[in-house]
Amino acid sequence: MEGYPLFIQKIYKKTGIDLASYKERQMKRRIESLIARNHYDSYDDYFNALCNDGKLYEEFINYLTINVSEFYRNPQQWEVLEEDVLPTLLKHKKRIKIWSAACSTGEEPYSLVMLLTKFMSLQDISILATDIDLGAIAKAKEGIYTAKSIENLPKDFVSNYFQLVDGKYHIKDSIKKQVTFQKHNLLEDPYPPDCDLIICRNVMIYFTEETKAKMYHKFYESLNDHGIFFVGSTEQIILPNRYKLTPTKTFFYKKMT
Ligand SMILES: C[S@@+](CC[C@H](N)C(=O)[O-])C[C@H]1O[C@@H](n2cnc3c(N)ncnc32)[C@H](O)[C@@H]1O
């Protein structure tokens, strides 16, 4: 379908989301299937409809952002975090600054709070969790999850930190209070400074190589000396030394000083 470059420009003006930074083939395929599903036959008509129909617009943003997440996604990596990465980080510091970037509906930052209770008291834990999608952030703040999403979570965390209400798992306020959610666009907004641990998983895969390179530099700048960058299971960094990051374990990189 023609008209994608102009659509990109209009969407950027309207939403601040730069589709040109996302892999084109994948993004076009997704958007075109959405256009067809809504019975439009051009980017132009679809864009005009988006501007006049809040529901359609919301559907577009939701579809675009792909909010799939779960607690303890790829559990082996959470084991490495528990057994190796966190003990090393906490050897020299009692409190660490953690940023969960592209946190979606909150499963990742809440998993982190639960894991950190093994190392420190709850009130010493504070996590910054950000995402571009305000709808996802609203769900994260609500903290209500399905049985499927907590499948990988250690059973004692489930019994200690959730209440089962009508078949849904409601996360307890004590956990919620330790996470600050904010809207943040990884492509545009300044990255928070002085992080000891940045966890950014399952979003880099959507970006072009050029965009990823820019982002790795920004993550590097965001980290404290010896800070750790934790990536998703299909997101290993090619030649990480280019960004002054060095692998410590698979999927974990340390800032080189
Ligand atoms: C598949 S989810 C990943 C959630 C979680 N990190 C995980 O691994 O389970 C991808 C998230 O990236 C967010 N996202 C996409 N583009 C973004 C951007 N430019 N800035 C910040 N977040 C973005 C989406 O809104 C979505 O919530």
- Average pLDDT figure: 96
In percent, how helical is the residue content? 40-55%
> Ranges with pLDDT <50 over ≥5 residues?
none
- What structural category arises from helix and sheet content? alpha/beta
Sheet with most strands: strand arrangement = 6-2-1-7-8-10-9
Sheet-strand content, in percent, reads 15-25%
How many β-strand runs? 10
Number of DSSP helical runs: 10
CATH architecture annotation of the largest domain: 3-Layer(aba) Sandwich
Morphology call: globular
User: Can you tell me the number of structural domains?
Assistant: 2
CATH superfamily of the largest domain: Vaccinia Virus protein VP39
- CATH C-level label of the largest domain: Alpha Beta
Largest sheet: 7 strands, mixed
Terminus-to-terminus distance: 48 Å
CATH fold node name of the largest domain: Rossmann fold
Helix/strand layout:
Layout: H1 4-15, H2 24-37, H3 43-52, H4 54-65, H5 75-92, E1 98-101, H6 107-116, E2 127-131, H7 134-142, E3 144-145, H8 155-161, E4 162-165, E5 168-171, H9 173-176, E6 179-183, E7 195-200, H10 209-222, E8 223-231, E9 245-249, E10 252-255
Parallel strand pairs: 1-2, 1-7, 2-6, 7-8
Antiparallel strand pairs: 3-5, 4-5, 8-10, 9-10
This protein binds S-adenosylmethionine (SAM).
S-adenosylmethionine binds at residues 65-69, 73, 102-104, 108, 131-133, 136, 184-187, 201-203, 232.
State the gist of this model.
It is built from ten helices and ten strands.
